[in-house]
Amino acid sequence: MIRAPAAARAAAPGARRSGAAATGGPRRRRDAQTGSSAAPAVPAESRLRVATYNIHKGVVRDFFGLRRVSRIHELRARLHDLGADLVFLQEVQGRHQRNAERFEQWPVEPQDQFLARAPGLKRTFEAAYGQNATYLHGHHGNALLSRFPILGLENRDFSDHALEKRGVLHCVVQVGGRPVHCFVVHFGLLARSRERQAQVLIDWIEREVDADAPLIIAGDFNDWRNQLSARFCERLQVREAFDVARPRGVAERVVHFVRDRQPPPPGASVQVARLPRMVRTARTYPALVPWLRMDRIYTRGFEVSAARVLRGPEWAQLSDHSPLVADLSLAG
Questions:
Q1: Dist. CA 312–CA 317, nearest whole Å
Q2: Which SS3 state, helix, strand or coil, does residue 81 take?
Q3: What is the pLDDT of residue 67?
Q4: Is 39 in a helix, a strand, or coil?
Q5: Which letter, b or e, does each residue of 195-217 get, where b requires 16 or more Cβ atoms within 10 Å of its Cβ?
Q6: Which segment, 10-19, 82-91, 97-106, 241-250, is predicted with the most confidence on average?
Q7: In this predicted structure, what is the pLDDT of residue 203?
Q8: Helix (H, G, I), strand (E, B), or coil: what is residue 87?
Q9: Given this model, what pLDDT does residue 97 score?
Q10: What is the reported pTM?
Q11: Residue 262 — pLDDT band, cuts 50, 70, 90?
Q12: Which of 141, 154, 229, 269 is such that its CA lies 20 to 30 A from the CA of 19?
């Protein structure tokens, strides 16, 4: 079991503690009276929006591919516009001395802490960071941004070979008074590496997480051939958000097609207005023309009401991946 971030703990075999929980603001529980009016039968504190996003360290190539451009400030603004409660992030820059010298407005603090603060400091996340890849001028890894209290964290080295440094960040957050296990995943580019990493993750969860505990596994699996989903679903009793939420029948697809093309109602929030249409599959890479299904959101103990890929030119300017968003409610 993982411990509270401040507690000292001897590293387990095959695991390493890296990174620390950075508090992006006071720990708060959501008020049941401030939630959305949708689905009134479900307590507001048990409803949440989850997003996963490979942010490519907040740096992208320009349109011609000739120079590198920092997008970390725009990326932070768009993340907070989502209204997400849990954000699973990959390729988060903990430190990069060269970028700090190259870009005038490069954040002074690590990116997880920078992204946890909303522009204007109106809203904040709590943040947890797991350092995976280390080099002379810095390091990067995975991060979790949470509007719920983070009760504990652990980061484990999942590197399968020396050329790819990968890791999985495990956090326990308190949602509706219940602990929810969150695993932020970034698997390797090679198929055999991904298979071994998936097996290690499944063994870890089966060994250390109660079989009936609410669970979210999200991130960049690089599983473009969809070879891992069946194993996760069978062994861990999870469901992939898009497999649950996508319209299946012809009539349902027609209804979604028409509904998603209606203009937003007068006075609609920015978050609702900016969410694009629902798509059949979570194709997230490359962001400009998403074709490969690289990213996933797996859940256990939740009901999935909607799942979306956020795509378009505005998102393609921020990273080489498109983000995924899923609306969940904690099962009774």
A1: 9
A2: helix
A3: 79
A4: coil
A5: bebbeebbebbeeebeeeebbbb
A6: 82-91
A7: 98
A8: strand
A9: 86
A10: 0.79
A11: low
A12: 229
Strands (E), the chain: 21-22, 47-54, 59-61, 68-70, 86-96, 126-135, 138-146, 150-157, 167-175, 178-186, 215-220, 239-240, 295-300, 302-309, 324-330
- Report the sign of the C-alpha dihedral through residues 105, 270, 144, 291, in that order: negative
What superfamily does domain 21-31+43-262+273-330 belong to in CATH? Endonuclease/exonuclease/phosphatase (3.60.10.10)
- For residue 25, give the nearest of 125, 152, 171 by alpha carbon: 125
Which residue from 282, 265, 332, 261 is spatially nearest to 303, judged by alpha carbons?
332
Domain layout of the chain by residue ranges: 21-31+43-262+273-330
Counting beta carbons within 10 angstroms of the beta carbon of residue 306, is it exposed (0 to 12), middle (13 to 18) or buried (19 or more)?
middle
Backbone angles phi, psi at 196, to 5 degrees: -70, -40
Q: Rounded to whole angstroms, how far apart are CA atoms 195 and 133?
A: 20
Residue appearing with tokens 């694009």: 276
Give 172-210 as a 3 state SS string: EEEECCEEEEEEEEECCCCHHHHHHHHHHHHHHHHHHCC
Q: What is the pLDDT of residues 135-178, one digit of tens each?
A: 888 999 999 999 999 999 999 999 998 889 999 999 999 998 99
Angle at the Cα of 143 from the Cα atoms of 140 and 144, rounded to 5 degrees: 175
